[in-house]
Amino acid sequence: MAVVTFVPPVGAPITASAPTGANLLSVAMAYGVGGLVAECGGDAVCGTCHVFVSGIEPQRLGAMSEAEDELLDDAAAPRRANSRLACQLAVPAEPGPIVVTVAAEQWRTMP
Ligand code: FES
User: I want to staple 71 with a disulfide (CB 3.0 to 4.6 A). Which of 28, 33, 47, 96 is the partner?
Assistant: First the structure.
């Protein structure tokens, strides 16, 4: 189980308990975190679940696929070093507290 603090673009942070292996987008949706469009439903084709992850070593979140890398290059919000797509992330075992900040601008036209 991990403690994940989601920071939405508007409103107060939301602290969630997430089991190991849980998909971060699914956890965010379950807790009603705002700002995630997730237009494709987690299929890594829309780039509208863009988040900035901190509090964990990037390699513990798993390798970034080529599709995720390309979508982040084209994301509505400017990409940062800690940018990831929430739908492509699973909670690792014993990660310590994770902070997931939702990118303020998510909307883009799907290809
Ligand atoms: Fe579409 Fe993550 S929900 S890329």
Answer: 47
